[in-house]
Design brief:
By secondary structure, this protein is of the alpha+beta class. It contains 16 helices and 35 strands. It has three domains: 2-126, Sandwich (Immunoglobulin-like); 146-568, Glycosidases (TIM Barrel, Alpha-Beta Barrel), CATH 3.20.20.80; 577-690, Sandwich (Immunoglobulin-like). The longest helix is centred in the last third of the chain and has 19 residues, at 494-512.
Length: 691
Amino acid sequence: MDEIEGFPIRPGLFDVHGAMALSVGVNFTVHTHYGTSCTLLLFHRDASTPYARLPFPEAYKIGDVYSMIVFGLDIEDFEYAYQIDGPYEPENGLLFNPHSVLLDPYARFVTGQRIWGNRKSGCYHARVIKDGFDWGDAPQSTRTMSDLVIYELHVRGFTYHPSSGVSYPGTFAGLMEKIPYLKELGINAVELMPIFEFDEAINAREVDGKKLLDYWGYNTVGFFAPNTNYISDEEANKDNELKVLIKALHDNGIEVILDVVFNHTAEGNEKGPTFCFKGFDNKVYYMLTPGGNYYNFSGCGNTLNCNNPIVRQLILECLRYWTVSYRIDGFRFDLASILGRHEDGSPLNNPPLLELLATDPILRNVKLIAEAWDAGGLYQVGKFPASKRWAEWNGRYRDSLRAYLKGDYWHSWEASWSISGSGDLYGGFYSDNNNNYAGYNSCVNFLTCHDGFTLYDLYSYNEKHNEGNGWSNTDGSNDNRSWNCGIEGDTDDPDVLRLRFRMIRNACAVLMCSRGTPMFLAGDEFGNTQYGNNNAYCQDNEISWLDWSLLDRNRELFEFFKFMIAYRHKHPVIRKMLPDAVCGMEPLLTHNVNAEEVFIPGDARTLAVSFAGYDKATGADDLVYVAVNPHWEDVRITLPALTPSQAWYLSVNTYGDERNRYCYPEGQEVRIEHEFIMRPRSVAVFTGRDI
């Protein structure tokens, strides 16, 4: 045993990355390829100056890995960081500075930014945690992708508005208070926008008297650590508050998917700070030009060098950690096309990282969802590498259905393909015991997400209104395919409001009756608005926070969402292929106005999709017919012929009847005799069953 600055030390556990509490002390393991020496810094809690500096002896190094056990440390009493020495050659991508205080890339808990929006210091420290959480014996979820209804939400924005009524607004605990609401709504998966430790204050600025932050969280500081700002009581819970939330969601049948950002970090470009990866191995962790500058395929200043073996290992270990220690059910990868780029930026035919994640045994049952494009122009929807294991955000679904539902009839073919499961993009259904996907199991359908208009704004604004972001309304997408229903923005006109809510119902009904996995943005179910801002990444205020008073004001819309989600859960034929229907209907067809015409014109003003199969669980045919009329006039449609013992019943009519009813529970449906008049700009859903 050796001693440095009065601390007993010995060589540590070289194959355990990060800092790990032991019964006799703490093991510290870290690596650098181009660095020449490493020093461990120990700080008292909340201190900026270390009380101890422990250089790693050369004998405590194997290969590129430094490892040391420091005896007698109490994990409640200290924070730690590192300093790495080495060559400083910016033109060669080497940025070593022995004075830079560096965060452990494998830090499990990050300090330095506990107060939201205020950086306490110019650097980050880490703390050591013990994982003693009892997950019980609940098995891992075996739901398929197509059985999910995904609800995307921002942890802070979901409950921070005073109207949320929770005791711990803007936190994991606040979200847990809303679990009864999520159960009532009927969703069975939440997709949490970034919850890794991120720096919301790194680009803080003021516009028109409002402080703007990087509110969304796509500026990662630490990949292994939960965001401390989302913990209601750091001292009492540390990382356990998030684990308590996840267990409670699981106990209520709700899976947890994390939005993860492995395409860039908060260190930015040449002008950005150095607090972690730049100081450990800038040339390893980032894609660099021949002159040592940063490739920017992320649009955020730098791009992680994801297919470097060291970075691949970090990403794999990170996902394994969240899967094992937090029981995460799935990951949605932001700008995932970057994960398939070579270190020179060119797309790889068989990206090693994607194959590694697709075949890893720990991740076997975890959902992997790609945002299959990046800011460098690489667009891979329908052809993301390793697609038989990866699902994709279906950008084509969003674009074609947004356009068709507002009356752009020339998108009818794309719309019908999309409702049917996007077979033209993903092929027929395929699944195996290795959790490989194809067909509709590869397809996440959505009309709204955090990036873009809310569903209410989609039918309230023709143009984006991002002036409050401070970029003269130049940021955000111009291709919104939205329609204001006659008046831009807020209005008291009852006719316009009726039309807007009908358009929202249309969107919800089609989304829930489409093959694939439906996803929608939190608040869409009660008409939440961002006042026309389609890029609210910096708006930590009423623009982004959910206004829960709208739930009471728009209760009718909420009830419609509940019905449609329950309808989808009840009818497996929408979600998956079933055995052939006894009545003889084809498993899946598209239809013109006349149901017998299965070929639709390229500019069809009305179209329908039928799903048919035999449900062994009920011992009866499961038959669903979805008709969409985005035209501004009535349209008479016919329904497919059934056996004499069966009939069609109207389950949903977004136009409403004389009693303003839009949906009909089983037993209250209206029986339809072959023909039905669809009212203007409406969607109807029919259920076939025995008379």
